[in-house]
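Propose amino acids for all 129 sites.
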């Protein structure tokens, strides 16, 4: 930064702070532009995120499920087929021993919860509909 002028590089910015707040305003504008306007707000429900590739690179198996998939990110994997069969067996037994619960009621409940459940994911799941 020479002669009180702004210097800018890829990962940082230097703005001179001068009397009258001119430098402060420039600093505020520059920082505001970098605040990721598309990111979820603090009040957003999202709390389920994909594991970043940089972490998976070091130990992929630590972030991939082995036996049970409870997330749409891994649904349909061959390694989960046995557990999918077990889940269906349990559902069948639940429906057999409960007269006040029907498969239609459970499906209706799932559809009612779908939109609010999707809001917990940090990225859209529209491709999984």
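Proposal:
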């Amino acid at each position: 930064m020479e002669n009180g002028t702004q210097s800018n590089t890829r990962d940082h910015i230097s703005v001179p702070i001068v009397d009258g707040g001119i430098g402060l305003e420039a600093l505020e504008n520059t920082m505001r532009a970098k605040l990721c306007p598309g990111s979820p707000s603090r009040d957003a429900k999202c709390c389920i995120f994909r594991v970043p590739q940089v972490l998976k690179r070091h130990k992929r198996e630590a972030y991939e499920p082995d036996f049970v998939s409870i997330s749409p990110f891994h649904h349909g994997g061959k390694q989960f087929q046995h557990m999918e069969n077990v889940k269906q067996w349990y559902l069948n037994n639940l429906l057999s021993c409960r007269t006040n619960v029907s498969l239609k009621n459970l499906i209706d409940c799932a559809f009612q919860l779908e939109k609010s459940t999707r809001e917990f994911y940090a990225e859209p799941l529209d491709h999984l509909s």
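The helical segments are 22-33, 53-58, 81-97, 103-118. The first strand starts at residue 7 and ends at 8.
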